[in-house]
């Protein structure tokens, strides 16, 4: 059409094929839902192009199950409520429910599901025999009489095309997986992705013989993530021979992630004991994995003099883009004019260094010269680094670096960390710092604009305040959308808070902040009556959450504090009252438990439309005397939340 001429061309005149491609490019759920409201044609087109869907709501409300998403290939059932209970037990005939799910979503090849007992997988897996990717979720304890591997057998029985298995969030014993893998050799051979990296610090890692038996059956693995044991004092620890054999078993690996079981906990690292791994063996392992693109070795025990082995990564693993090293010592000497050690890995785009006691400013600067493509950098527990070295590092990488994490570094508190990031202040998108305010008073504050910062992660000790954050130099972040706050410490050793509030009200200076993760799971205290002179968790919860009613949050994930002596993590009255006053909140996920009458407080929030409790410990039996949420109480709360009498503005 010539410029300046008029036309009656309408949006509907766009060919359906092109319009379908446009819809397929949009992945944000709320945006797609808004597009579907334009007209009937767009509604049908959006539904027919949706490939991924997460179901929420109560499984007993089967009449609400959508049947218009027949093209969905990735289905997530892990958020259905009542969360943590057997998915199909709500019906007298669970097979009919499984068949109804298959009828509604016939194209599913990727499934995420909460599996409380083997019956769930037995019924669901048979409905989708073409499943290729499965992620199992379970935080609750095993049934005491369950045979070894019984949860996994139905999956391997019914899904011969399985190529990807993720049990990283699935509570099970390490003894469960090896016999099942060995019993199904054809499926084991076809597996290309296996994630057995346990995120629960209370579970043990896989012993060396278990890991080797698994990898021996899966020679075509491209991605392997596993929790293992590197402590040489333990039976089944990872040795030189174990690493070599693993590399020989799976030569096609593009991603190898091996982490010690203690790396998932909050326990400080062991900087005294050495791992039974030599730098010479590491070089041989790298030579046998030429396709590596991502490598994680979080050993939690010293691996010394590693720079000669790391130099081989550049030549033996030319496609390596991401590297994470935990407690590797001597990764870069930084004394020679040409780069050495990890600084020779010129193709790296992401680098994480954890608990490297001999990493100096000179070594860090050498890494910035050698690894000139870095866009992501993490440094944790490296106490020789200073603000000057970090500033030089970020200055050298100012054209590429957009994601930085600085944590547990003695010389880098909140202010010095932010000052060290000054060269990339106008570019950085994602940032983590520790809220250590020891030297904030008297230092020059650089109150400048962080124009592109969208995600901010903070660690703060219990008893400290959040208010100094804006004074430290982070007061102007116009693009900030999400913040994660991790609070850690023992309230039992703390006096009563000297201020009324932790400081969440100070976050109102971020106009676009809509999502928050407030993680108090690392906070321990007295859930019941505290001894004389101490404060119970209900008052600490009031302290942490005061001010949240002034926020503009749309979504909140809240991990409650815990009393480890009575194994209780629950919502208290102050939290329920304060959350009910957060007038913009639409989604609330409470990682803990609560009493039903406290949950009913939340109904006073007019905008709240999606609430879920996710207990990560075994729920009490129905005949228990405590009044935590049960199936019945959960259903009553959801009925009240979704009642037609509640008008929820959209």
From TrEMBL:
Residues annotated as domain COI1 F-box: 14-51
Organism of provenance: Gossypium armourianum
Superkingdom in the source lineage: Eukaryota
GO cellular component: nucleus; SCF ubiquitin ligase complex
Official protein name in the record: COI1 F-box domain-containing protein
GO biological process, alphabetically ordered: SCF-dependent proteasomal ubiquitin-dependent protein catabolic process
Pfam families: F-box_5 (PF18511)
Organism ancestry: Eukaryota, Viridiplantae, Streptophyta, Embryophyta, Tracheophyta
